[in-house]
Every structure is written in structure tokens, then in C-alpha cells.
Design goal:
Blueprint lengths: L2 H13 L1 H10 L7 H13 L2 E5 L6 H11 L4 E5 L6 H5 E6 L4 E6 L6 E5 L6 H13 L1 E4 L2 E4 L5 E6 L12 H4 L2 E6 L5 H10 L14 H13 L4 H15 L13 E3 L3 H17 L7 H12 L4 E2 L1 H5 L4 H11 L4
Parallel strand pairs: 1-8, 1-9, 2-5, 5-8
Antiparallel strand pairs: 3-4, 6-7, 10-11
Helix pairs in contact: 2-4, 3-4, 3-11, 10-11, 11-12, 12-14
Length: 329
């Protein structure tokens, strides 16, 4: 390694000290769920939106609001329902009797972290309004376009069990999420800890661990993390294998994948790997960073064929096969 990388490594180690402090603070109220916590932090460090999927009661909302408090960010929760209107999300023009003019009343999307609770319950017009915010970091109210706050992050949840009254998210919107994180049930040990904590009315206070300004500086540091050319090629090969599996020695999977990862998957995998390295206090990316984060980045971007469904295969199986097959540099 060159001297520059060693110096960068020391700088990242220093800059990333807030990560463990933040996780420790949030763990005062959230038991376990380390994978979800780290994914949200990586989203904040890269500006990438995060989709959380899991059954109700797994502390998704509590986790998001707790991280917002620990990092001194604005937070708004929007419960998505079939009768929600775009104006309920982005705001509207209202008539001011005193001035005799129309003025903008901004909606809850004008904050740093928006929790879109049960996002798949909202109809197409609301999805369209949210997509503009996610993609362009701006919204249009009346004839005027308004920039959103920086940082701006959409953390959405969806329930995999209920299908009645839900609207499947369009592929274009799914692709805007950097991660799709599967939130699982707690372990037996964690469940016992939850039981013990909920036996009292005491609610721990979460202290701020980092300011908004320090978070923005940490974002700049993430961009500086070193990624070797061989690892860049490794990322490209993983994504290309989802599109053209036969060319990468995976001919048996050619009839299983209908749509592979887009170029946005390549970008997301690169940025996420750097964020993963930052969380580990390193100034450089390793192949393990890429492999461990690939599931979050790719699982919602792959559309499988009926043949895959007939064989009881899901996107996790496909990603695992690709990672096992593509040679690690």
C-alpha cells in the first residue's frame, strides 16, 4: 500500500468513530437488528434510499426515528394509505386571506429523513410524486420547483404478508432504492432482552452523537475511500452476470433472469461498498465488502422468470450463485 492510502486509512478510522457511538446510542431502545441499523447508516453516508421489508412489530419505525435523533436530523413519518394524495406528501398552494395571494404550504417531505410507512399502500399518483423527490431531490408545487433539504433520505417500509389494498412498486421506483433490506425476527436472546426492557415504562434518552455538518463531512470522506481497479472490474462483472449469465459461465441461469441489474446497480454497489468500508474504519474497499452488500443492492433489482418461480428460486438464490461463480480478484 502507498503512503497516501495509509494516511487515508488513519483519517477514515478517526472520522468513523461516530459510527459505533451512534449504534450504541440507538441500541438503548432497539435490541439487535444490526444489519438494518448499518444499512440505514450507509444510506445516510451515500444519500441512497433504503427499503425495509418485514412483518409488523420488528422496530423498523423505532429504529429510523432513533437514528434521526442520534444524528440530529429532521424526521417525518408518513403513513401511506390508499386515499393518500400527492398534496398530503409534498404540500400545496393555499390562499392567504390577509395578503390576498396564494402561498406554498410545504408537506412532510421537506425534512432530512422521511419514513414512508407501508409505501406499497399508496396509489400511483403518490408514487409518482415520491419518485420525483427520490430521483431529483426536488418537488413541484403549482408552477414552482422546490429543492429538498440536504441530506434527504427516504426510508420506506413494506409488509410482505398483506396483499389486499396494496399497489406493487413500479420497477423504476424500486431501482431508486439503493438497498432492500429484509428485516427478520429477533433471536431468542434478543427476544428475552426485549421482554425485559418492555417490563418497565422507562424510556432511555438518545444523545446526539454527530451533527449534520459532521455527517456531510463524513460523506465526503466516503467518496475518497480507495477502490482498486480489479475490484471495480469485479463489481461490473457481478452486475453484467445478472444481464448476460451465459457469457459468464452461468448458462443454466439464462432462463431464470428476466431483467438484470441496471447501471444504477453498479453505482449503488460501488458506493455501498465504500460506505461499508467506512463503517469498518477502513480507507479501502475489500472484496468481502462487495460480496456482503451485494444482496441488499441486487435483490430488488432482479426480475425472475416463471421458470425460476416454478423451481422455487428467488433473487437471493440467484445472487448467491453469481457470487459463488464470479472469480474474486
Amino acid at each position: 500500500m502507498s503512503v497516501d492510502i495509509l494516511a487515508l486509512n488513519e483519517a477514515i478510522k478517526k472520522e468513523s468513530q461516530f459510527v459505533e457511538k451512534t449504534l450504541k446510542e440507538v441500541s438503548k431502545v432497539v435490541v439487535g437488528q444490526r444489519e438494518m441499523l448499518e444499512a440505514i447508516l450507509m444510506g445516510l453516508l451515500t444519500g441512497g434510499h433504503v427499503l425495509l421489508e418485514g412483518v409488523p412489530g420488528l422496530a423498523k419505525t423505532l429504529t429510523i426515528s432513533s437514528i434521526a435523533r442520534a444524528i440530529s436530523l429532521g424526521f417525518q413519518r408518513v403513513q401511506f394509505t390508499p386515499d393518500l394524495l400527492p398534496t398530503d406528501l409534498i404540500g400545496t398552494m393555499i390562499y392567504d386571506i390577509k395578503t390576498g395571494e396564494f402561498r406554498v404550504k410545504k408537506g412532510p417531505i421537506f425534512t432530512n429523513i422521511v419514513l414512508a410507512d407501508e409505501i406499497n399502500r399508496a396509489p400511483a399518483k403518490v408514487q409518482s410524486a415520491l419518485l420525483e423527490a427520490m430521483a431529483e431531490k426536488q418537488v413541484t408545487i403549482g408552477d414552482t420547483t422546490h429543492k429538498l433539504e440536504v441530506p434527504f433520505l427516504v426510508l420506506a417500509t413494506q409488509n410482505p404478508l398483506e396483499q389486499e389494498g396494496t399497489y406493487p412498486l413500479p420497477e423504476a421506483q424500486l431501482d431508486r432504492f439503493m438497498f432492500k433490506v429484509m428485516v427478520n425476527y429477533p433471536t431468542k436472546t434478543d427476544e428475552m432482552e426485549i421482554l425485559n426492557r418492555m417490563a418497565t415504562d422507562h424510556q432511555p434518552t438518545i444523545e446526539s452523537t454527530i451533527s449534520k455538518e459532521d455527517l456531510m463531512r463524513a460523506r465526503d470522506r466516503v467518496d475518497m475511500i480507495y477502490l482498486d481497479e480489479k475490484l471495480k472490474n469485479y463489481i461490473v462483472e457481478i452486475v453484467m452476470a445478472t444481464r448476460e449469465p451465459a457469457e459468464y459461465g452461468l448458462a443454466s441461469m439464462e432462463n431464470l433472469i428476466q431483467v438484470g441489474g441496471s447501471p444504477r446497480a453498479t453505482i449503488s454497489l460501488t458506493r455501498a461498498a465504500k460506505a461499508q468500508a467506512f463503517l469498518r474504519g477502513r480507507g479501502y474497499v475489500t472484496a468481502d465488502d462487495i460480496k456482503s452488500i451485494a444482496y441488499h443492492v441486487l435483490r430488488h433489482r432482479l426480475i425472475l422468470t416463471y421458470e425460476a418461480e416454478a423451481e422455487n428460486l428467488n433473487s437471493e438464490d440467484v445472487i448467491k450463485e453469481i457470487l459463488n461463480h464470479i472469480e474474486v480478484p
